[in-house]
Amino acid sequence: MRNFKNFSVIGLFSIFAVIFILNGILAQGSMYQWEIIVMTKGEVFELPEGTNEAPYEEVTVLSEDVEAILSTYEAETIARAIPGFTEEDRNQTSRLGKPVQLADWTKLFVVKLTDSSFVDDAIDELDQVYEDIVFAEPNSLVEVDAEPDDLHSNQWNLKNTGQSGGTPGADIHAVNGWDITTGSSNILIGIVDAGIENNHNDLNPKLVNYDNSAAEDYHA
Length: 220
What we know:
Layout (H helix, E strand, L loop, with lengths): L1 H29 L4 E6 L4 E2 L6 E3 L4 E2 L2 H9 L2 E6 L10 E3 L5 E3 L6 E6 L5 H8 L6 E6 L35 H5 L28 E2 L9 E2 L1
Antiparallel strand pairs: 1-8, 1-9, 2-4, 3-5, 5-8, 6-7, 10-11
């Protein structure tokens, strides 16, 4: 009987511990509803030196319109969305060896309000400040269902594993081809949605399957 009581006490303690942890997680997740993601065009927010997050009262807002909106809707804190990002990080090289420039994520901020009911109205007004704001949108918690979560595994024409009831291997062997090359920016591809004239002087010699059916049509 004593063992049963000990088990009951331990069991109840475990249940309360799990409930406490879950409540903490849910409460933390709900905090996203109080936040706005803001991308500025120029220098709009100046945080105290050496900080990535600060109370609203300690942040210098260089736009009068933005300051008025955030004051009206009781901004509580402002933080950099990607603290480690610098201006130098914008310059990158693509997989094809071409120089590319990323967006300036140093101008992406998370604005936390004191009340989640203010978020929609604050966003509507911030979106009207065209000269200072690129966009404003609600922050959200995204859950990934699977890895990868794209639809590549459903595209049987690229890699047929029989996932759609087809014949495994009956595909264009795209995955094997990607081991050789992933393409080139020098290759031009045109996508025609409305069909073409199969008797066109330039296209006719390059077409296979000379009939009026779209089935199995492709370029040689």
